[in-house]
Design a protein that fits this description.
The structure is a single chain. The protein is mainly α. 67% of the residues lie in helices and 4% in strands. It is built from 17 helices and six strands. Strands 1-2 form a two-stranded antiparallel sheet. The protein has a two-stranded antiparallel ribbon with strand order 3-6. Helix 1 (2-35) packs antiparallel against helix 2 and helix 6 packs across helix 12 (367-390). It is globular.
Length: 578
């Protein structure tokens, strides 16, 4: 009976995860192919970008399965199911999820520090004029990639030898023993600490990208759906008129020097500028003409009401996310254990709409998986909308433009890197927006007040003691003395059934592995937790600023991103050809 139930729990987690894995692989391939240049592409950069995005999406897709697993361990009345009644069984089941997290995070590190730099510089070694052997290109790329591996090694060494924050001290001997015992649950090997340090460092870099791109994109994408594109017919008329004026000015300059007079440098420069502008307008005219004659553009006009509705719904969804993040930040500011614990929140005190929605959806499997997937996709598309509008910059130099079917292989790899770092940070954002859902799901436990009674079996009264082997309760939230609790296995408890929090007895609730990793590291390396907390306030401010900018901006061109001055004319012909 116990073994069958445990197998059912694993099947309920891993079968949906396997289906989602296939869907994410298909999504990653289609997404990269959508942005990949038709004119300039290479199989190595394409496959690296596809697999990089796919692996990173899997780290987010595992979170709902992790949450479902811990919720599936308990009944609605707050008691553990038979198969999860002992800590050994629960730990064995959760270890599978933990090792999957470690494997996925290790793969992310391999892509960021090895595969993506190697493929990027491998393409840079390519010469269009001379044929360079693959071996020579590979050796040239490895010289640069070694620098990234050295950086990764330095971060790992720092993670091993950095002085982590120790357990808090207490003058009360009994309380100190309790804290010390609980803190041992969060001890790890040097390898785990090093991996956590590197991942947190990359997540901190991802948070900067989150502020630069995602905070703006979450408002820019919905607003762009509401405003739509400019009318192709009106824009076509404007381009034709502008081109006519430019051609007239070109003709006037040439007429001025029709008697073989020597053209001044000023007029020659002006003539070159006008001729370049005329060629660009001619290409814009051709693209707009193609849009006007396309059946797809006519069909999209019929979908305009649906586009408007989607934009308004996404605006509401975005404000719901910002509201949830704001309420959680206020809660953490008022009720957390402080900066030295990474502003970890032992128990939510302010109702959070995102938490409420996700907890409700979890009661109807797999509704929460669907809502969570929409949440993740919203962040991805919002980020990519910002990357498309802003581009990829190094200081004040724009390196690459990200455009559908026109993105260079190097830009594709950098876009993949941005998405990977943002997705790493997304795990922390989810933990901040929906702390209850992320930490315990919809688990409940029985709260015995000071005057509560318990009916025991003939085996007699027992004491509800913390189960330190389950590694669910951090030391810094366990300082309050615990009352005597009746054993769940032997007692029928009469008390209030409450949602699980960090203030619950240690063996009454089971934390998810993702929240356990974050809470542990936020305490041991509080600097990261404090940076994420204050960075989330900056995220809220930048979102509001991005909303204002998106509203006052004019609608985009009907051929936005299709025509740039530095494009090859052959690439235009390729895109205009059906």
């Amino acid at each position: 009976m116990t073994l069958a139930s445990a197998v059912d729990a694993l099947v309920a987690v891993w079968i949906p995860f396997s289906v989602v894995t296939v869907l994410l692989l298909l999504f990653s391939w289609l997404y990269i192919k959508y942005y990949q240049s038709r004119y300039d592409k290479e199989i190595s950069s394409t496959m690296t970008a596809v697999l990089g995005v796919f692996i990173t999406l899997l780290t987010a897709a595992l979170i709902p399965g992790d949450i479902f697993l811990v919720s599936y361990m308990k009944n609605a009345d707050g008691t553990f199911k038979e198969w999860a009644s002992d800590a050994v069984s629960r730990t064995a089941v959760q270890n599978g999820v933990l090792y999957t997290y470690y494997t996925l995070y290790a793969c992310v590190l391999c892509f960021i520090f090895l595969f993506i730099p190697l493929v990027y510089f491998y393409y840079e070694e390519k010469d269009d004029e001379t044929q360079i052997p693959c071996r020579a290109r590979f050796c040239g790329a490895m010289r640069y990639t070694i620098c990234f591996l050295i950086v990764a090694s330095i971060l790992f060494i720092i993670g091993i030898f950095v002085p982590w924050q120790a357990a808090p001290t207490s003058q009360n001997e009994t309380e100190w023993q309790h804290l010390e015992q609980l803190f041992q649950n969060f001890t790890t090997t040097s390898g785990e600490d090093a991996l956590g340090f590197v991942i947190s460092t990359l997540s901190l870099a991802g948070f900067l990208l989150l502020l630069l791109y995602t905070a703006y994109g979450l408002s820019a994408w919905p607003i762009s759906l509401i405003k739509g594109y400019r009318s192709a017919r009106v824009e076509y008329t404007e381009v034709v008129d502008e081109k006519s004026q430019v051609l007239s000015e070109i003709a006037a300059i040439k007429e001025k020097y029709s008697n073989d007079r020597r053209m001044t440098s000023r007029d020659r420069n002006r003539l070159n500028e006008l001729e370049d502008s005329a060629r660009l307008m001619q290409r814009r005219e051709e693209h707009l003409s193609s849009v006007l004659s396309s059946w797809l553009s006519k069909f999209l006009v019929l979908l305009r009401p649906l586009q408007l509705l989607s934009g308004f719904l996404l605006v509401i969804f975005a404000f719901l996310i910002i509201l949830g993040l704001t309420l959680t930040n206020i809660d953490r500011l008022l009720h957390s254990a402080g900066a030295k614990t990474g502003y970890a929140l032992p128990q939510p005190h302010i109702p959070n709409p995102v938490d409420i929605v996700l907890l409700f959806c979890q009661s109807i499997f797999p509704l929460d998986y669907i809502v969570f997937g929409i949440f993740v996709m919203f962040f991805i598309f919002g980020t990519m909308e910002a990357v498309r509008q802003i581009g990829i910059w190094f200081l004040w130099v724009r390196m690459y433009r990200i455009r559908p079917q026109r993105t260079q292989p190097q830009g594709l790899l950098l876009m993949c890197t941005i998405l990977m770092l943002v997705m790493l940070t997304l795990n922390i954002i989810i933990y901040s927006i929906a702390p209850q859902y992320t930490m315990f799901g919809n688990q409940h436990y029985v709260d015995l007040g000071p005057n509560s009674t318990a009916t025991t079996t003939e085996m007699g009264n027992t004491t509800y003691r913390p189960d330190v082997s389950n590694a669910t309760l951090p030391a810094f939230v366990s300082s309050m003395p615990q009352a005597s609790w009746p054993s769940q296995q032997e007692d029928a408890v009469i008390g209030d059934v409450k949602l699980c929090t960090l203030d619950a007895p240690a063996n009454a609730c089971v934390m998810t592995q993702v929240s356990r990793l974050l809470t542990r590291f936020f305490y041991k390396a509080w600097f990261f937790g404090a940076c994420y907390f204050w960075g989330s306030w900056a995220f809220i401010v930048l979102f509001i600023l991005g909303m204002v900018i998106s509203v006052i901006r004019r609608p985009e061109s009907a051929i936005s991103g299709a025509v740039e001055a530095d494009d090859f004319e052959e690439s235009d012909e390729e895109l205009l050809t059906p």
